[in-house]
Every structure is written in C-alpha cells, then in structure tokens.
TrEMBL record:
Signal peptide: none annotated. This is Diguanylate cyclase. The chain crosses the membrane at residues 6-24, 31-51, 63-83, 95-112, 143-166, 178-200, 206-224. SMART domains: GGDEF, PAS. It comes from Acetobacterium wieringae. GO terms for molecular function: diguanylate cyclase activity. InterPro entries: Diguanylate_Cyclase, GGDEF_dom, HisKA_7TM, Nucleotide_cyclase, PAS, PAS-like_dom_sf, PAS_fold, Rev_trsase/Diguanyl_cyclase. Its EC number is 2.7.7.65. PROSITE patterns: GGDEF, PAS. PANTHER family: DIGUANYLATE CYCLASE DGCM-RELATED, REGULATORY COMPONENTS OF SENSORY TRANSDUCTION SYSTEM. SUPFAM superfamilies: Nucleotide cyclase, PYP-like sensor domain (PAS domain). The lineage of its organism: Bacteria, Bacillati, Bacillota, Clostridia, Eubacteriales. Residues 359-484 form the GGDEF domain.
C-alpha cells in the first residue's frame, strides 16, 4: 500500500512542478509569484513525503522529513503573501505582520533541521508499523503549535479575502475566486483532520489534498485562465496609468500605489505599502492640505489632486506631471516682462517694480548718443549690437538694480536704498566703461540721475528725463544729477 501512496504523491509533485513552471511564466501578474512558489513548496512536500512512506528505517525517514520542511516551513508566509497580493490589502497584512510570519517560518525550518538537539518541534519521534508498513509517529513539541498557529492564521486570512472577492465580483472573476477558495479550503480541512487524528493512523493527509488542488488549478487554467488573477480594469489599468497614484487609508497608512508612483519617489526613497505616510514628509505635507496644489520635486513639477474615499475611508492622491506646462507658463511670464533683444526688463515691468518700492533710492535714465548715426552708417544689425553691449555693461555695473529698456535707445535703472552720491560715482564709472569698451561701433551715452518719488512715478520720470536732456544739451557723454525731489 505504501508503494501506491508514494506513487500518487510523486505524480502529484510532478504535476505541481509543471503548474509552478506555467505560473512562473505569468509571474508579473499580481499574486501569481506567491502562488507559484507555494506550488513548488507543495511539490517538495509531496515528493519528500512519498519518499518517506517508501523508507523502511528511522534514519532515512527523518532525513526525508527534513527535506519536506524545506517546503512546509514556508506555507504560512506564501499563503499570506498570495492573499494580500490578490486582494491588494495592505493594512492588515502589512510589512510588520509579513516579517513576523516569515521569522516564524524561518525558525521552523531551523528547529526541524536541529530537532535532535532540543526536541522543540517534535518532542518524541518513533516508528509505527501497525498499519502494515513503517510510518513516523510523533509527539508534537511547543514550536510545532506555533507553526500550526501561523499556518491557520494565514489560511483563515486567505479564505476571508477570497470570500470577499466572491461576494464583490461577478462572472468569470467570481468563478476564478471560487476555484482558488476551494483549492485553499481542501488542504485546510485535510490539516484539521490530521491534527484531530481523524485520518489513517499517523499518515499525513495534507500532501494527498494537493492532488485535488492540482486538479482544481489545472482545470482552472484550462477553463478560466486562473493564473490571470488580477482584474483587467483594476491592476493592469492601474499600473498603466502615467500619473502617479497612491491610496492612503484614514489612519495614514499606504494601501496601494501604481508603478508610476514608485518611479516618481525613486529620488526620495522607496515607498512601501503598509507603512505610515508620515515617513515620507512630502506626502505627509500634501495630505495636510485638502486642496489641489502644485509642487516641485527635483527638476519636475507635479499637480496634486486629492480625492476622498467615501467620508472617512481614506484618500486617493494623484500626481500629474505638469513640468512642460509649468515651464511653458514661466517662459510666457518671462516673455511678458522681458525685452526680446536685450533680455532686460521691459517698460511695463519697470513700472510694476517702481510701484512696489518701499525704501528711498535713485532712478537713472540714459540714452545712447547719436544712435541714429550708428544705424545709418553701419546698419540696424550694428544698432542691435550696440544695444546689447549697453545692456551687458548695465548688468555688470548695476547688478543690484532693476534695469529695463525704456524705449528705443533709452534705458532706465532703479536702485532701491542707494545714495545719490554713490549712484553718481557708479554712473560715471559706467559711462566711462561703455565709452572705452572693445567694439566695432564706438559711441557714448548721456545719463540723467535723481532721487525717485516712490509715490509719484510720472513726476519722477519727468524729472529724470529733464536731467537727461540737460546732459544732452551739455555736449552729451555726461552724467547730470540733482537731488531736488522729495523722497
């Protein structure tokens, strides 16, 4: 009889390996990687238990038990992993819970391999020949019950998740969920029967339940493409969206996110599902506001939209890359205040900045002497060159001022907080520098300079204009200044 049972288990393990290989080809689909590894673990368990039943001496049996637990030890973590990936549930099966279960599984493998030293997993072990062939008889140790508790915790969680899928879906998706539910339920029933002693002697019923599971999965692949566990309208579309999407529950834990979101936060740290949002300060600050906003991250700009889930169930945060739009808007704003030729401010912006003055200071108005002769003698391209040379010279000497092309060959400078005496000296230095510059088109500049009246733009500009023309009438290439205006 043991030969028949062993043959059944070996064949079952081969089928599970084939199903695992098929699943591995679909490993990119949510949940499939976990169930594929679970099939491989079951295959190890089935094959090794089949070899154990064929063994006639205690030493060989124990060696095969140690092989069995290469798969059995990790049932809890693989079942838990599959269920949370399938349902996309991270709040309960978060990383901390997964870590604890994985630690239990790892400890189980270690304790089984070293059981002869401590007896924590199997308190006593012997051989029973009462059913016609030798079979291992065990007395369970303390850690055995810990492993069983972890296994039932994972299986109950998986069954609850699958019941939710059955109740909340329709059509082929519901049939898939029901098939997976049944496949999970059968090993759980077999395990319960074994633990309660309802089987045939000490024969472990769990590996034999895998036969039924293999048939279910195989028929599911054929009829319902059971390995395609995720909804097209959910997982695939969710991960295809170019916008970054993250789902946060009402207590601030990350429930779900798409691939675009993970790529987005690559520069800030790896986002992890199940972790509190306050570990990522950017997201924490975003959630503090209930309004849409635009933020800068690195060299990118993102528009943030917050969508409430019901009244108190959490928030969906959507990141839309608006870098191109933002940069285009900035360029339009710059063009609106900038002179195209000289790249200085234009007159409109100069007036705006004048109206924003808070402290006393000076205003300067200057004009290129005999500029018309430059255009007539050398051409308009030469005139443009002279205008740009003047703009560069102004930027170098009045870096702390507001410089604009006031109109034609006229330029204006505002220097807030500057004294008239110091401004006159700087004006003279600028005039001399412009006259002596290296150029193919020599010319000079006349300058009018005075205090500005920050309460009256027109009065200020009329006054400085008069001083400019005094400089022109005095022979040009001069700075004329007067502190007659009140501040």
């Amino acid at each position: 009889m043991n030969i028949i049972l062993s043959t059944i288990l070996v064949v079952s393990s081969m089928v599970l390996i084939v199903l695992g290989i098929v699943g591995f080809r679909h490993r990119g689909i949510s949940g499939v990687k976990a169930i594929t590894l679970l099939m491989f673990a079951m295959a190890i368990h089935s094959f090794a238990y089949g070899m154990e039943l064929m063994s006639s001496d205690w030493e060989t049996m124990y060696q095969w038990i140690r092989v069995e637990y290469l798969g059995v030890s990790f049932y809890p973590i693989l079942i838990l992993w599959f269920a949370r990936e399938y349902a996309g549930e991270r709040r309960f099966a978060n990383n901390y819970v997964m870590g604890i279960v994985l630690a239990i599984c790892t400890a189980t493998l270690f304790l089984v391999e070293t059981n002869a030293m401590h007896g924590l997993y199997y308190a006593q072990m012997g051989v029973d020949r009462s059913i016609g062939f030798p079979i291992v008889m065990t007395q369970k140790g303390q850690w055995y019950m810990v492993q069983v508790g972890a296994l039932y915790f994972a299986m109950i969680y998986a069954l609850v998740v699958l019941i939710g899928q059955i109740l909340n879906t329709r059509g082929v998706t519901r049939r898939r969920a029901f098939l997976v539910f049944t496949g999970m339920l059968v090993p759980m029933i077999a395990s319960t029967c074994y633990l309660l002693g309802w089987g045939i002697g000490e024969i472990d019923l769990i590996p034999f339940s895998f036969i039924f599971l293999s048939v279910l999965v195989a028929s599911g692949i054929y009829r319902y493409d059971i390995l395609f566990l995720s909804e097209v309208t959910h997982e695939m579309i969710f991960n295809t969206i170019g916008e970054g999407v993250i789902v946060v529950d009402s207590e601030g834990y990350i429930l779900k996110m798409n691939r675009a979101m993970q790529s987005l936060f690559g520069i800030l740290g790896q986002l992890k599902i199940g972790e509190p949002i306050n570990r990522y300060m950017v997201l924490a600050h975003i959630l503090e506001s209930s309004d849409s906003q635009t933020i800068a991250m690195g060299d990118k700009h993102y528009q943030i939209r917050l969508n409430a889930i019901g009244k108190h169930h959490g928030t969906i945060v959507v990141f839309t890359d608006v870098t191109e739009i933002t940069e285009a808007k900035k360029q339009v704003e710059i063009l609106a205040i900038t002179d195209h030729l000289t790249q200085l401010y234009n007159r409109h912006h100069f007036v705006q900045r004048f109206n924003q003055l808070e402290k006393a200071g000076v205003v300067m108005l200057l004009d290129i002497d005999h500029f018309k002769l430059v255009n007539d003698q050398y051409g308009h391209q030469a005139g443009d060159t002279v205008l740009c040379e003047l703009a560069d010279c102004l930027s170098e000497h009045f870096y702390d001022g507001v410089i604009c092309r006031y109109g034609g060959e006229e330029f204006a400078v505002l220097i807030e907080g500057e004294s008239l005496e110091n401004a006159r000296n700087r004006g003279e230095a600028f005039r001399a520098a412009f006259q002596s510059r290296q150029t193919d088109f020599p010319c000079t500049v006349s300058i009018g300079l005075c205090w500005y009246n920050k309460a009256d733009y027109s009065k200020t500009m009329n006054q400085v204009d008069k001083l400019l023309y005094q400089a022109k009438n005095a022979g040009r290439n001069a700075v004329v200044w007067e502190d007659a205006l009140e501040t």
